[in-house]
Design brief:
alpha/beta, Rossmann fold, 8 helices, 13 strands, binds flavin-adenine dinucleotide
Length: 311
């Protein structure tokens, strides 16, 4: 079956037990065995690495054998990543938009958190000069995708997209937001509400927050109704509800966790929620709570609430 022409059922697909916060110690391919996967493995070269902060590395992968055809993926999908010498693949989400694979210099980007107990992640955290230039093999998979198959199938007009990211859970949402802006889906009658919760890196260290600058840039292309809200957790600075200017952009920064009212407000007026989609990706506890809240919110079609959990 060709993954890219398959209509993905618009259902919630939790990656781990919905109530358990404990880690399930199984490799990625087994954990995601029920997810759709492309048949083909593609060779890529690890071309570039950039360290965003103490915990996150960004990688640029370029196709190694273009004559065999470029891989295809949908925004939000992940890769089985086979690294040299490690028998089982790791699972990491593509953070770049699909259209970049058709550009003059095609590449895909991954953002990988330091995880010494995960063999493929540990390999990717080796000293850069020992891994750059290596050939990896990757396979595309996953059903947490943009655009929403639901709206496409019913030819309905989407009016609002709500994205909720917890920490490195911003990865699939980064690809989705980028593709949405490239496709110019963001017009005056369409709005994006983006709630991003992450650990406070401390004052004047906002540039160390994964993808914050990139998200701010993309918001310039969105209409006035669209809004980016940053929630900084475990903050030493107890200033609450500050309206801060970062890199010349207006962005609401609040030093607390995302709360129920934040999500309900982002979902918009009850009579417009039928035309809203909601994408949530974060740690399991947060994801479960917000999925339940969004699905039960008045006016929301529960089939339009999607999530992905990693740990
Ligand atoms: C759909 C999906 C997308 C993800 N996207 C990203 C991403 O973009 N960036 C990111 O940083 N992380 C991502 N992750 C998480 C990543 O795959 C690992 O789960 C993470 O690195 C944590 O690893 P861990 O060993 O701490 O825990 P787990 O992955 O839960 O592994 C627990 C234990 O299982 C064993 N194990 C796991 N994988 C392997 C393996 N391949 N070979 C041998 N033994 C293994 C090890 O003993 C390990 O200690 C994603 C996960 C999923 C399911």
């Amino acid at each position: 079956m060709n993954l890219f022409f398959r209509r993905v059922p618009p259902i919630i697909r939790p990656m781990a037990s919905p109530i358990s916060r404990s880690k399930v110690s199984i490799p990625h391919t087994e954990r995601t065995a029920k997810e759709p996967r492309d048949n083909n493995l593609h060779k890529v070269l690890l071309e570039r690495m950039e360290q965003v902060n103490d915990d996150i590395r960004l990688f640029r992968l370029v196709p190694a054998d273009r004559e065999k055809g470029l891989m295809k993926f949908l925004a939000g999908q992940w890769l089985d990543v086979h690294v040299p010498t490690i028998p089982k693949a790791g699972g990491f989400t593509i953070t770049s938009p699909p259209s970049l694979l058709n550009s003059q210099e095609p590449y895909i980007e991954l953002a990988i958190q330091k995880s010494p107990s995960n063999p493929p992640a540990a390999w990717l955290w080796r000293p850069s000069d020992s891994i750059l230039g290596s050939e990896l093999q990757v396979r595309v998979g996953g059903s947490f995708t943009w655009p929403s198959a639901n709206f496409q199938a019913e030819a309905r007009k989407l009016k609002r997209a709500v994205f909720v990211a917890g920490g490195v859970g911003i990865n699939p949402l980064m690809s989705m937001l980028s593709q949405l802006v490239i496709n110019r889906e963001a017009k005056d009658d369409f709005e994006v509400q983006f709630l991003y919760s992450t650990k406070d890196p401390g004052p004047s260290n906002l540039s160390r927050i994964l993808f914050l600058g990139r998200v701010q840039q993309l918001f310039k292309a969105l209409g006035d109704k669209s809004q980016l809200q940053l929630f900084l957790t475990q903050s030493k600075d107890k200033q609450i509800d500050s309206k801060s200017q970062v890199a010349g952009e207006d962005m609401s920064i609040q030093r607390r966790r995302i709360q129920e009212e934040d999500l309900l407000r982002a979902l918009g007026p009850v009579d417009e929620r039928i035309d809203t989609v909601c994408y949530i990706c974060g740690v399991p506890g947060m994801t479960d709570a917000f999925v339940e809240l969004a699905q039960k919110a008045e006016g929301v079609d529960a089939r339009n609430v999607f999530c992905e959990k990693w740990w």
